[in-house]
Amino acid sequence: MVPGKPDQARVVDLRIVEQPGGVASQPPSEATARDLTAVDTARNLTAARIVEQPADRWDDGPFAGVLDSPYHGIVERSDEVHVQGLLAGVCGTDVEIVRDGFGEPPAGRDALVPFHESLGRVVTAPAGSGFTPGDLVVGVVRRPDPVPCPACAVGAWDFCRNGRYRERGIKELDGYGMQRWSVPPEFAVRLDPALGDLGVLTEPASVVAKAWTQAEAMCRRAHVVPTSVLITGAGPIGLLAALLGVQRGFEVHVVDRVTDGPKPDLVRALGAHYHREPGEVSADVAIECTGVAPLVWEAIRRTSVTVLAGLTGDHDPVPLDPAVFDQIVLGNKAVVGTVNAALIDYRAAADALAHADHSWLAGLITRRVPLERFTEAFDRQQDDVKVVVDLS
Fold it and tell me: Per the database record, which ranges form the Alcohol dehydrogenase-like N-terminal domain (predicted)?
């Protein structure tokens, strides 16, 4: 885990710095990012100016985005796709990394470059990779474990059984909070160029695509023919879950506590139903996106299949009604947890976004923070839905 914060945090904003002769620094590759002292003297490469941030900016938690020194030039890997970073999305995991020290830096480091939600444009790509300069792409978050476990061995790293996977911006690999990053071709996903900046929604949409795949699999196993879905939570995950439900032709009900702001309007703009309380809503399937225990129990009680996509966080413990277990057993209910996504889910997400109303998707991005003030992205504001950091 990340040790305590230093008295004065030096935060790398990872801008590309031009050197004499017009040569720009290369992004650290996944394979060599641990070696911060490997200077490419032949090309006189260096990277990333340092900007100072007050230590008290981080509350009392360690921040995994501080570095003791700037990146030096890393020899470019010819087998990776090199990408100009455009946007990085911010989610609750990033906030936990900043506030609570969740996350693990690369071996030998006490720092982790943040952000796992990416969007970029290809600068160079290996021959035969299927990518060309100018392609709009996102990078996959998780990498399979090196053993590998049975799941990782077949490309289902989101079901890793031994926990030795790595994740960009979360666990042992630097994130996509860079103006230049690189990725092996098999961990890059090409997007419809018409999406533009909306492509930054691909990673959260991939989590939702997997949740829907799990829900549909459970329905088939339980002989449920679903026509309606209850979604708890109208954050980015909940709203994207609602979008994919509408695209599937479901009757969609979304429950969230807010009464105004963009969320109710975004739900209704889909043709879905917005509720502040579950009330008498019943559905075939629930996708639970809050981790709030009372809503979890309500979701299970009201549906045949429940997919849990939310984490509990800091919520206080609540009593558990044993009747919930009776309902699960006697009703042949299915409850499944889901996290992360595989390559097939990223591609499904990219397709769903490409076919969505782009003006509706644009409404999800409620705040755009410039790179030089990226720490502001971690301070939640009342009407935030999806906050992004502009890497330009």
Answer: 78-178
